[in-house]
Design a protein that fits this description.
six-stranded parallel β-sheet, alpha/beta, 176 residues, Rossmann fold, 22% strand
């Protein structure tokens, strides 16, 4: 996907949902909205993901985790302005569903700027999957968080630096 036909940068806001916004993640709402405003202002595309867990999922079977099966827990957080941007529903860690992959191809996305929840899970998996597909991943470190706390967020950043390169980790100030 690195050919000259793929030229655009897109912001992807990952899983900023009611059930993931807590005392460990609420501080990123302002930075996420600043990024959204910058991308809209620059005429660049943006999209959102929304995680929905399903009965019998791997999360339920192997982790015993049954959250995010229903609204309002799995709704996108109201304080984040989705506007008319597409929302991609996913049932796993990565945003790379068939629908999302098709959207990236259609819109010639060569660079994916990621923010949201959780640094150590869905943001990390999506960034690595972009990397492996030849799409440049950029993770906005101060617009990501882990609902499990700062130490887990920091662990996610450590792994991201190893997986996609420390130079791919940026701050909101780099984009706003």
């Amino acid at each position: 996907m690195t050919d000259s036909a793929h030229t655009h940068t897109m912001l992807l806001v990952v899983d900023v949902q009611n059930g993931f916004v807590n005392e460990h993640t609420q501080h990123i709402i302002g930075p996420v909205n600043a990024l959204i405003g910058a991308f809209i202002g620059g005429g660049e595309p943006l999209a959102f993901t929304r995680f929905v867990n399903t009965s019998g999922s791997s999360y339920e079977r192997w982790l015993g985790w049954t959250r995010f099966m229903h609204r309002p827990e799995n709704n996108l957080f109201d304080a984040v302005d989705v506007g008319s941007a597409p929302v991609f529903v996913k049932h796993g860690y990565t945003a790379f569903t068939d629908e999302f992959s098709h959207y990236l191809d259609e819109n010639r996305i060569a660079r994916l700027v990621l923010c949201g929840i959780a640094t150590d899970g869905c943001v990390l998996k999506t960034a690595v999957d972009a990397f492996e597909r030849g799409i440049e991943p950029v993770v906005i470190t101060d617009a990501c968080a882990s609902h499990a706390g700062r130490a887990i967020h920091d662990a996610g950043l450590l792994l991201l630096a190893r997986f996609i390169g420390a130079g791919q980790l940026k701050s909101v100030a780099d984009f706003v």
